[in-house]
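Following the same procedure, sequence and fold were stored together, as reproduced here.

>
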Amino acid sequence: MNIENQKITALEPCYGPNGGNASKIYYKDGEVILDNRRTRSLLKYIAKKFSVDLEALRKNYGNYLACSQYVPLCINRFIILIPVKMRSPLGFYDGAIGYVNLDSIVDLKDAPGTPGKKEPQCFIHLEGGQVVPSLFSSGNLKQQITRAKIARDYFCYLQDADCKKKAWQEELEERFRKFWEIFGPPFGPETKD
């Protein structure tokens, strides 16, 4: 499985050829791979590869976004996974939640007709040309996408906070240097003792 940055577009829970829980992995190049692991296990595997604690992510970003369910998962700068209900499970332990990478969403299209609770309400069109179902309405998904964008901005802020401080400090020092070149040293000319 290829989990490099910017490759994964979505993880969809599905039933495998033998009827057990499995997952479809969608890639930006259009490839779709069936993985025999449940989506939850696959997500844990991806998080482990990027050294990310999923519980801490859910807690921290849930607090920041003031939500407790469907918290976007910022794995890294390029993999921001939006939780989406993609199917109605047949059994209690069957997963219903899939994940869509924020930057891979091209369009949202409402389902034709009058969808029921167990049928897709809209379809998510992905960068690789694939389409995944959503039991959420397009309005609900737009809220999820907005929430994910806010989470990404917060993630970038946290990751770049030290860089921003350093850049700001360097910019301030440069401004003072230019000021001193024009108007002289801040405390007058140096005197020799």
In short: The mean pLDDT is 83. Residues 8-161 form one domain. Strands lie at 8-15, 21-27, 32-35, 73-74, 80-85, 97-101, 105-110, 122-126, 131-134. Residues 138-183 form the longest helix (46 residues).
